[in-house]
Amino acid sequence: MSTSTKAESMLFDRDGEFWKNYKAGRPIIPPSFYQRFFDYHEHKGGSFETAYDVGAGFGELALNLSKRFSHVIVGDPAPNSLSVAQELIKAANTNGPHFTFRQERIEESDLPAASVDAIFCGNMIQWTDVETAMAVVTRQLKPGGTLFISLSGIPKYDARIQPTWWKMVDACVANLVVRMPHIDFDRLFAVQDNGYDSVAVPEGDFEVGVVRLKLNTFGDPKAFIQAPESSRNAKRVSRVGSNDSIQEGIDKDWFFDVDIDDMKATLGSYPLDPDPEMLKGHLSELDALLAGGKCEGHWPVSIIMATRRKPAA
After folding, report:
1. Cα separation of 126 and 156, whole Å?
2. What is the CA radius of gyration of the chain?
3. How far apart are CA 291 and CA 95, in angstroms?
């Protein structure tokens, strides 16, 4: 595992104030998102005993998994983030499912083989050594278990706003690249920018027909690009399997209207730590375009759902 991916995973090692802003700036995840996962898992005959939320952040996804699973493992490499998740779950859960907290990178997880019924990876696989991470989750899943990988962290705005938003994010990322030369940003963008098509699901270990669902992309190959100028050198490779089930759709639950304060919150939900003076000009430009009003936007969503193969009879 590279030093770069270890450093990348700690970018989100933040306190409760950051995660409060993260929740405000990221999408309100609709019930349909979780129901899609639950329905797939149930249709495949999966057990609702143990789920593992990998890279759990502040714990919101784990709480929703607990609505169906008896035991939820909450894992994150960042100690501050895991502490925030523990506080959130403790406050919300009185007599609910059992939770186990693990401070770990998924690449180094020592959970027993075939011990987990479902593994949930939300907005995190790009922060890992993907090949190693996929080998670990494959080992941990029970036969018939579900692997669910999702990306929903990159908003798109209407045509008059998007170029200015991209320019601002590019400036923030360029500054971060200078401050953190030990992080391989080209690798990050290569994983993320094609909506996780770069993530290979081992065909020998999972059932034929891995579902790759893209929502709200409108056929745009740039739908998941976060910073076009900063990511121009990223080598985006498709590792979609020849038998994977490619699906597209529109889900209006991921559409929104935002004002300048909402956009500030979204920018603040990324661990960019931009220079305030540099940011001021970009925000003023966005504010002028909005003219005190709001703009439309949506979150493109990518979902991978796969079932661990059962041993041949």
Report:
1. 19
2. 19
3. 49
CB count, 10 Å around CB of 235? 9
DSSP 112: P
Ramachandran class of 132: left when φ > 0, alpha when ψ lies in -120 to 50, beta otherwise: alpha
User: In tens digits, what is the pLDDT along the chain, a chain of 313 residues?
Assistant: 555 566 666 788 888 888 888 888 998 899 999 999 999 999 999 999 999 999 999 999 999 999 999 999 999 999 999 999 999 999 987 566 799 999 999 999 999 999 999 999 999 999 999 999 999 999 999 999 999 999 997 899 999 999 999 999 999 999 888 888 888 989 999 999 999 999 999 999 999 999 999 999 999 988 999 899 989 888 889 999 999 999 999 999 999 999 999 999 999 998 888 888 889 999 999 999 999 999 999 999 999 999 999 988 6
- Name the pairing type of β-strands 98-103 and 116-122: unpaired
* DSSP secondary structure code for residue 247 in this structure: E
**HEC-encoded secondary structure of 93-147:** CCCCCEEEEEECCHHHCCCCCCCEEEEEEECCHHHCCHHHHHHHHHHHEEEEEEE
Tokens 């991916």 label which residue? 5
The total number of residues written for the chain in this structure: 313
